[in-house]
Give the backbone structure.
Amino acid sequence: MRNYRVAEVGVVLSLSVLLLLTLVPFAMLLFLSFKDHLDIVIDFWGIPGEIKWENYSTAWSAVSGSIGNSLFICCVTVAGAVLISSMAGYSFARNRFPGKEILFMLIISVMLIPSMLNIVPLYAIISQLNLTDSFWGLILPYISGTQLVGIILCRTFFQGIPEELFEAARMDGAGEAYLYLRIALPLSMPVIATLGIITFISVYSDYLWPLIILKEPHLTFTIQAVNMTTNGRPDLGLSFAAYIIGSLPMILVIMFGMKYFVQGITSGALKS
Amino acid sequence: MFSLDGLLTWSEIMIDKPFRPDRIRYWLKAYFFIVPSLLFVLIFLYYPMLTSIYHSFTDWNLAQAEWIGLDNYIRMFNDNTFRIALSNQLLFTVTDIVKSIVFPLLAAELILSLRETKLQYLYRTGFVIPMLIPGIVFVLIWLSVYNPSNGLLNHFLSFAGLNSLARPWLGESDTAIWAVILMGFPYITGLPFLIFLAAIGGFNKEIIESARMDGAKFRNIFLKMHLPLLAPQFKVVLLLTIIGSLQDFVRIIVLTGGGPGVSTTVPSLIMYNSAFKNSNYGYGSAVGIFLFVSILLLTLLVSKIFKSERE
């Protein structure tokens, strides 16, 4: 019994060290975000004489515009992806028509193409469509990429809805559009929440595609955050405050939808 | 997943009366629901991917594409920078695999060996916290950790009296690649950790408990029972890591830009730079195709290894 206790203490100690190492950079971020730049340079570890709240107000005015852009792009992408993937998922689950299996395979097998390797030819399409330096140049590719997981999630969910629900409405003469809007969609809120959250997170944190498509001054938060850090002589305390402000939308979305987020990341693993 | 189970009785009835106008109308409605998805997939995924195979054989500046046969591929394999990028990529991929398995698996085992569920929950939550912030912010935080004069790492070294070790980690060609690799230590946060945690937590506890009763040591339970049972999880983690590793050049763009010199460059970064910095879209496409084929082959290889082991 005593050996068991000793082992338990060892486990707790090792886990605590690992957790400390994991979280130290974040603790540093939080601590330094309240310090003046000169304070950081002169006395890195020192507790600041006064907390510099100003970092946060200055950072807010520097990044709020780009956060707004990011949120706009996220919301339109989420709405678009939810709409078209629930429509396709509905039809694949509940209708029978020629070529159904082939079309489903055609849409789903595109998941095998790693998205990052599509950037060069995709950029060519976007510039042909005259969408460079436009939010639509981000939104349209985002929708096409994120709808794929969505179609699978929605199709699986719609297949599980009892047929009686639809049958009753059909007897009363309801059409497919009515069945989709009034029966399938309202029931599928959990799936839509999951899809919405994983879409929001992947779009909000994307750095590469905005870097290719957008130009000043229409930037997303991720681009703005990197620019603040790497252009000229950055103010450290200020950029740390900006990182925290810019992370808040994502933190809030995950917190409010924790249950759906967990389902989302596990279903995301199916993507490979 | 692709079976025809659970189809509607209503549409079964339709099948009995083929080619009536209302049946055609029903088909058209069904297609109408799928058309938006299909258009997006065709325009933004299939069309670019297929044209990029063609463009990889051309000298292409977006406006004009001139057929040059295999020149892009020949240039790629003769290019010294590309060879360095390949060997860097090999190092990144191997270390990424080790990183995605060792600490996440260790942490998952340690957490589940605790008897207090409250403690389990505490550590599990703690390790997942960094997932709450955008990935790019995570990279930026580490960029500041490596900051030569105001970074956490060098300040810690001078605090510990190891001043002589402090250096511009990302600015010297012999330390830069290892600094990029060490970013994110101890690498527990992430999908592999959650996958291992879920799998080990789901093991049949009675069997493992009875093995322990029979005097099996923890080491043997881990080696003889846990590791073989985790084969499907290893496969998923391995695939995710390899695919991710070959595509991930964002961390490199932000931390070093591929430098100093070409000491941290990788093929995907060459793809990006040749297209978007030098407007050489044909060459960029060729590197993209090369990476796509590599990922495909590695995926098949991993699947084959795990298949033959099961037999």
Observations:
- The radius of gyration of chain B is 26 Å.
- The longest strand of chain B covers residues 58-60.
- Chain B touches chain A through 99 residues (CB under 8 Å).
